[in-house]
Specification:
Blueprint lengths: L2 H8 L7 H7 L11 E4 L9 H16 L3 E4 L13 H11 L23 H13 L3 E4 L3 H13 L18 H10 L4 E4 L8 E6 L3 E6 L6 E3 L7 H11 L4 E5 L6 H11 L5 E5 L3 E4 L2 E4 L10 H7 L3 H12 L3 H7 L24 H13 L3 H15 L1 H9 L1 H8 L18 H5 L20 H12 L8 H15 L1 E2 L2 H6 L6 E2 H13 L7 H8 L1 H8 L3
Parallel strand pairs: 1-2, 8-9, 12-13
Antiparallel strand pairs: 3-4, 4-7, 5-6, 10-11
Length: 542
């Protein structure tokens, strides 16, 4: 009997050929520089920062080349899958404005985009491998495999199903047929042609040239339930989706010899590989992979609740992705990260360290450059979800709030108070009468209440909301002269004993009386927004 007979015995219902698949999923019409990249997560829950970064890299390389970024769902391990896992992933990618051309919802010419819906493709390729003598059925039980591993451990041999340990490798057609007729469970294994004592040499886009021993393990291609493990599924998927760059976790690099043997056995042209080091975290003197179980900051929800802009997170990813991005962005602060040309050779070869403080600083810079109207709209959306009381105030006082957010914004060096939207309320609450309660005043050098009231009374008589900033400041100087304070800091420093204090002390009294805070944005702008009546009302509260 021939290998073709064996293939028909194992897969009698598979009628398509590998040539049919090639016609169904023809090569894409790509220019030389266009890339097709994919992100292939399992539907096990919300995205975390590790896989959000892992999806950022292929998304960037695909889209900067005007190519195609694919979302493919690897759900063959259905024990860990959750009911709405696919939609959660799609939602997260949309929330981060990733440009996905093909996914389970959008579809495309190279789908289905969910692995469990691609069973016919896997079985067609599997049947082909059997027909050319590169795959065979294995009827070894779990007990058989356990005994084999124990034997290998005892004699300190390499663990795996290979060589003399591959008991089913040379079963005859009749022996296989008897097992099939008895209903014995079987898996399909690759008939490896590798020699562990020889090396393969391949180029990784991140790590460069790498040497590893050839694969000689007869790995499982199709499990007993008819579903393929990761390796065989991804080879079939990446080939028939015409992926040009396979990005994946660095932990898979040791399996490259097996994967390359699979590509060659199937007769497929192998793609380019880029093994990405995961996001790491420094913990004491050790460095470990960031963990969604151990690290709150690993969860995407952490940033959503804090109100850190998604664009700031992507800017941070860009600094992790290419070492020269940060310098470029400092020179081009008004450009998008998409204007930068990313390359694999500038990616970290030791693993990027996740730095939450740096991310927050990037967020602070990003928010400072937005228009007040943009900050308002995003703040409104954030507060609707996390602070309804504040949302109602923002809705009630829309234009007023936009003016508050615009203080010291439209200038060469805008103020950088806000690192995230959850912080904004604590910086501007005093501008709303509804929140101006339970007050604790941060008086500084002047604390005597009678003296404070005297200053406030003197100032309000002079205040005119129509004054420009120079006149406004001059009237503060007049209060200094009337009450024995130095209106000129140089004179005060030369003869401090001649004065009760200085103009900074007077300014502080006005600031604290109006806001309770010793540090605020521009006092002149605050007073113009509050208006004379409110200023007088708050002065009278002291």
């Amino acid at each position: 009997m021939t290998n073709k007979d064996l293939a028909d015995l194992l897969y009698p219902d598979v009628t398509k050929t590998i040539e049919d698949l090639e016609k169904m999923f023809p090569p894409r019409n790509l220019q030389d520089n266009q890339e097709v990249c994919r992100f292939a997560p399992s539907p096990t829950g919300r995205m975390h920062m590790g896989n959000l970064y892992a999806s950022f890299v292929p998304e960037v390389f695909a889209n900067q080349s005007n190519g195609v970024f694919i979302l493919r769902i690897e759900d063959t391990d259905n024990k860990r899958a959750i009911a709405n896992g696919i939609q959660l992933i799609i939602d997260d990618l949309e929330n981060y404005h990733y440009i996905v051309k093909e996914d389970p919802i959008k579809g495309g010419l190279y789908g289905p985009y969910i692995q469990t819906e691609r069973k016919e493709i896997y079985h067609t390729v599997a049947k082909y491998l059997v027909s050319i003598g590169r795959a065979y059925p294995c009827f070894c039980s779990e007990e058989d495999l356990t005994k084999m591993r124990e034997q290998q451990e005892q004699i300190k041999d390499r663990i795996g199903y290979y060589g003399k340990y591959a008991k089913c490798r040379n079963l005859s057609y009749d022996e296989v047929k008897k097992h099939i007729e008895k209903g014995d469970k079987w898996v399909l294994r690759l008939k490896s042609e590798g020699d562990f004592n020889k090396k393969i040499i391949f180029k990784d886009l991140v790590k460069g040239t790498i040497q590893l021993p050839e694969n000689d393990i007869d790995q499982v291609l199709i499990k007993s339930d008819g579903i393929p493990p990761y390796a065989f599924a991804h080879v079939c998927d990446d080939h028939f989706m015409r992926v040009t760059i396979v990005t994946r976790d660095d932990s898979y690099i040791s399996s490259v010899p097996y994967h390359l043997e699979l590509w060659n056995a199937c007769g497929f042209k192998e793609p380019k590989f880029a093994h990405l080091l995961p996001l790491n975290k420094k913990e004491g003197n050790t460095v470990r992979k960031i963990s969604k179980r151990k690290d709150p900051e690993a969860a995407v929800s952490f940033y959503h609740e804090k109100g850190i802009p998604v664009e700031a997170i992507k800017l941070y990813f860009a600094t992790l992705m290419n070492s020269n991005f940060e310098g470029w962005f400092l020179q081009n602060p008004d450009k998008s990260y998409r204007d930068f040309k990313f390359t694999f050779d500038k990616m970290s070869k030791s693993g990027p360290l996740f730095d939450l403080d740096k991310l927050i600083n990037i967020s602070k810079n990003y928010i400072s450059k937005l228009k007040a109207t943009e900050v308002y709209e995003t703040l409104l959306n954030w507060s609707y979800e996390f602070d309804l009381e504040f949302y109602n105030l923002l809705t009630k006082y829309k234009n007023y709030t936009i003016n508050i957010l615009n203080i010291e914004r439209e200038q060469k060096k805008p103020r950088k108070d806000f690192s995230c939207y959850s912080e904004i309320k604590k910086y501007i609450w005093y501008m709303y009468d509804e929140l101006f309660t339970n007050l604790e005043y941060e008086w500084q050098n002047i604390t005597d209440q009678d003296e404070i009231r005297k200053i406030l009374k003197s100032y309000i008589l002079k205040y005119d909301i129509n004054d420009d900033k120079d006149n406004w400041f001059n009237k503060m100087k007049e209060v200094c002269s009337e009450l024995g304070y130095a209106s000129d800091m140089k004179q005060y420093k030369e003869n401090p004993g001649n004065y009760k204090g200085n103009i900074a002390d007077i300014s502080n009294v006005l600031r604290v009386a109006l806001t309770t805070k010793a540090m605020t944005p521009d006092l002149y702008e605050i007073m113009k927004l509050l208006g004379r009546d409110k200023i007088e009302e708050r002065f009278n509260m002291i």
